[in-house]
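Q: what sequence does this backbone want?
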C-alpha cells in the first residue's frame, strides 16, 4: 500500500487491531492480501482470486449492514475500509478480464474513481481535523504545494486551454477548473513523469478531492471531463509497477481515445505519447 514507514505502521497496527473490532475491515484486509497473492503467485492464481472475491463479498456485506452514521468513533475504520475497497476494485484483474470493450473498461475506471471519491463524502468532509490527530495521521500527511505548482509538466498545463476554448457554462468551467487544479497538485507531489513509483501511495489523492460538479460531468461522459481523466491516466501509468495498478493507466487512456475520436485527438497527444514511450 505504501513505502513510507509511518504509513506502513498504520496498516500493520491500527488497521489490524481495528479489524478485530470491525470484522468487515478485517475481511477487507484479508481480501486485499489474497488479491495480492493472486498477482504474485500465478501458479495458484485461481485459488487466491476466489478467496479474494469471497472475502471482499463478506467485507461489503458487513459494511452495508452497519449503522452508516459516521462519527469520531468509526471514521478511522471507514477511512481504512474505503481505501482498501478502492484499491481492491482497481487491482482486481478478474473484473477487467470480463470486460469486452473499451467502453466497458471506461465504465469500470469511472466506477473506481467514483468509489475512491466517496471517501471525501463519507469521512474527509467532516472529520479531517480529527483524523489529523488520530492513529491514522500518517496517512493524511502529504506535501501540499501551492499554485502555480512548479512540478507540473508543461504539456499538462494545456488543460487550462481546453476549458477556455470550449463553449461551457459557468458551473462546468468551475467544476473543470477545480478538477484540473487538484490534478496539477497531484502531478507536483508525485513528480510524474520524472519519477516512477512502485506502491499506490498518493495516486488516489486526486479522486478523493473531486467535487460533485466534475463527477456529474464525468458520469455524462462529457469530452472535457474524459480528457482530464486521461491526464490522470498518465499518473496511473507511472504507478504501473504497483501490483494493484499495472496497466490501468494505459488502458484508461486508450479507452478514452477510442471513446472521443479524432475531433479531440490533439488534447490526447501527450497522454498517448506517454504510454507509447514507456
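A:
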Amino acid at each position: 500500500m505504501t513505502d513510507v514507514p509511518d504509513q506502513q505502521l498504520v496498516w500493520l497496527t491500527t488497521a489490524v487491531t481495528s479489524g478485530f473490532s470491525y470484522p468487515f475491515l478485517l475481511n477487507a484486509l484479508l481480501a486485499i492480501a489474497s488479491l495480492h497473492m493472486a498477482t504474485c503467485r500465478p501458479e495458484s492464481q485461481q485459488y487466491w482470486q476466489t478467496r479474494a472475491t469471497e472475502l471482499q463479498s463478506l467485507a461489503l456485506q458487513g459494511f452495508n449492514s452497519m449503522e452508516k452514521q459516521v462519527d469520531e468513533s468509526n471514521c478511522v475504520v471507514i477511512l481504512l475500509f474505503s481505501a482498501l475497497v478502492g484499491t481492491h476494485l482497481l487491482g482486481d484483474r478478474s473484473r477487467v478480464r470480463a470486460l469486452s470493450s473499451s467502453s466497458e473498461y471506461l465504465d469500470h475506471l469511472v466506477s473506481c474513481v467514483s468509489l475512491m471519491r466517496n471517501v471525501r463524502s463519507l469521512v474527509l468532509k467532516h472529520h479531517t481535523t480529527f483524523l489529523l490527530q488520530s492513529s491514522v495521521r500518517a496517512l493524511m500527511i502529504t506535501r501540499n504545494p501551492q499554485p502555480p505548482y512548479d512540478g507540473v509538466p508543461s504539456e499538462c498545463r494545456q488543460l487550462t486551454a481546453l476549458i477556455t476554448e470550449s463553449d461551457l457554462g459557468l458551473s462546468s468551467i468551475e467544476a473543470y477548473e477545480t478538477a484540473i487544479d487538484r490534478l496539477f497538485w497531484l502531478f507536483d507531489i508525485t513528480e510524474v513523469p520524472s519519477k516512477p513509483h512502485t506502491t499506490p501511495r498518493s495516486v488516489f489523492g486526486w479522486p478523493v478531492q473531486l467535487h460533485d460538479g466534475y463527477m456529474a460531468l464525468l458520469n455524462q461522459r462529457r469530452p472535457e471531463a474524459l480528457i482530464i481523466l486521461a491526464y490522470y491516466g498518465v499518473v496511473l501509468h507511472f504507478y504501473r509497477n504497483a501490483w494493484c495498478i499495472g496497466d490501468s493507466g494505459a488502458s484508461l487512456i486508450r479507452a478514452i481515445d477510442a471513446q472521443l475520436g479524432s475531433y479531440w485527438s490533439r488534447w490526447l497527444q501527450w497522454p498517448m505519447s506517454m504510454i507509447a514511450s514507456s
